[in-house]
Amino acid sequence: MNTYDVAIIGSGPGGYVAAIRCAQLGMKTAIIEKYATLGGTCLNVGCIPSKALLDSSHHYEHAIKHFEEHGIEIPGEVKVNLEKMIARKQAVVSQTCDGISYLMNKNKIDVYQGVGAFKDATHITISGDKKTEIEAKNTIIATGSKPSNLPFIKLDKERIITSTEALKLKEIPKHLIVIGGGVIGLELGQVYKRLGAEVTVIEFMDRIVAGMDGALSKELTKVLKKQKFKINTSHKVTSVERKGENVIVKAENKKGEIVTFEGDYCLVAVGRRPYTDGLNAKAAGVNIDERGKIEVNQHLQTSASNIYAIGDVVKGAMLAHKASEEGVLVAESLSGQKPHIDYNLIPGVVYTWPEVAAVGKTEEQLKEAGVAYKVGKFPMRALGRSRASMDLDGFVKILADKNTDEILGVHMIGARAADMIAEAVVAMEYRASAEDISRMSHAHPTFTEALKEAALAATDNIALHV
């Protein structure tokens, strides 16, 4: 029987990063993955493939809508080859997953393919092509999450689908109904909207991306409606039924009326649930709460002292970069270091176009907590860079403490917001004030000038370029 200092169950961004860091710190490390490729949901059927399709569809949309204005003339009709687009996406996925395999080899990490299940707190059985058992002094559970569903919806994975199937459709939907106005539904909805589908979003809450700052939700709604999305908030889905090649969705609106939607595909994007199936956690003494989350302390230690859990199976946002940070934290803790994560400063991003990004407290949270704050806001359309690229939608909004000027939250929607948010994270990690950012030189012309201008607005109540 092979014996290890650390075994990691799951090879997503939490698991594989934890494995690499453990190996770097001198621990004999094994990683267990049930699927044939490493990388988990993010690399195989999540972050990476969805961004590949978002980029491809964005190129197509630019070609048909904006190239002529840029002075680019394409003879003949611009057409979508969905099969080739999906193949390119898969090539990106394969290259990325192969990169993880390379990193496992480079760091001398043993890879086991199969389902890892606890025999007890220090022994794991791996059911793959053949049954294997290993011993691990410590174990990190990084088994991630799976798409959630509503109890009355029968997913046939043909017309009534999850995000996994939406990444490999063989045709462009005529009318895609999206249940759920969160990140996954909006991103995949925009992919197919750009390619020519009619897209209807049905959201139970009173606004889309409900966990983000209300101003972002309002602006994104406005932008998506301009892109011809049909958005129905405060609608409770009551039934989803397939009839031949069509899907009928019924929902109750806020007036109590039943509204019927008909399309040829229905994407169920109502969130994700922790995945611990087959883990046999009870045999190791690991507690799982009523919501399916593994219970951990501030060190991500489970009720079994030598077993840790990270990523989507524990509390907090289901984000790949959050899982990676937790993987590093556990690895460094096992080596005797004292790492720390500030969960308030883990950014969230929606990769629609314009992109949406945020870090820190929302305005609603500050109001609820009774914190005195001030707001600085700057529109993207006032930037030269935005006009040059024709990306005029959106704004940057900075929330700062009214008395100390410390930045408490940054919320932005606009071109390259996903990249720009990193500046806000750095600033807040060092507890910068709005004035600090307002006095820093930002290259011109860039989108990040909007951050400086919003900081000026928060500091002096007036930006330079509005």
Could you walk me through the main structural features you see in this protein, from its secondary elements to its overall organization?
The structure is a single chain. By secondary structure, the chain is α/β, with parallel strands linked by helices. It has 3 domains: 214 residues, FAD/NAD(P)-binding domain (3-Layer(bba) Sandwich); 111 residues, FAD/NAD(P)-binding domain (3-Layer(bba) Sandwich), CATH 3.50.50; 116 residues, 2-Layer Sandwich (Enolase-like, domain 1), CATH 3.30.390.30. 32% of the residues lie in helices and 26% in strands. The chain is built from 13 helices and 22 strands. The strands form 5 sheets. Strands 1, 2, 3, 4, 5, 6 and 17 form a 7-stranded mixed sheet that branches. Strands 8-15-9-10-11 form a 5-stranded parallel sheet. Strands 18-19-22-21-20 form a 5-stranded antiparallel sheet, sandwiched between helices. Strand 10, helix 7 and strand 11 form a beta-alpha-beta unit. It starts with a strand and ends in a 6-residue tail after the last helix. The relative contact order is 0.12. The model has no long low-confidence stretch (mean pLDDT 97).
List the topology elements:
Layout: E1 2-9, H1 13-24, E2 29-33, H2 40-45, H3 47-65, H4 82-106, E3 110-113, E4 115-120, E5 123-127, E6 131-141, E7 145-147, E8 160-161, H5 163-166, E9 175-179, H6 183-194, E10 198-202, H7 214-226, E11 230-232, E12 236-243, E13 246-252, E14 258-263, E15 265-268, E16 272-274, E17 307-309, H8 320-334, E18 348-350, E19 355-360, H9 363-369, E20 373-379, H10 384-389, E21 395-401, E22 407-414, H11 417-429, H12 434-438, H13 449-460
Parallel strand pairs: 1-2, 1-6, 2-3, 6-17, 8-15, 9-10, 9-15, 10-11
Antiparallel strand pairs: 4-5, 5-6, 7-16, 12-13, 13-14, 18-19, 19-22, 20-21, 21-22
Helix pairs in contact: 1-8, 3-4, 3-6
